[in-house]
Give the backbone structure.
Amino acid sequence: MTTVAVAVHHIFRLGPELIVPGVILVALPVVLLVVARARRSLVASVVFAALVALIFVWFGVVDGVLDHLLKALGLENLTFLPGGEAEVVATFYSLGSASTSAAFYEATGVVEALASMVMLGFAAAFVASQITAHRRVVLAAA
């Protein structure tokens, strides 16, 4: 869900040239998770966790929290991203009116922030379970 929100958010603002990177961003964590579970691979689990951490920091904190969530709470945003200082950010797509488009864009940014927190918790629990399972296998073999 997090990467879907990130993709929709950025495609809405910047246009269709982000569709392919958006699909990759959505597919990559899923593929890594499937590989990690199917092969019980600690390496794939760590790569998955690193990707999730990167997504959390960049899209969840830097873009989601420091820009959109703070704006939604009525606070001054703290982002250094281009266009973050604008009252209404120009978007490639429109939902009829500028205010509706801006509300959708800001809302997807808030979803991006909140969903990334859930994703980070899920990834931490998954990696912890993989490490525990790996330890059991190593101890059983000893």
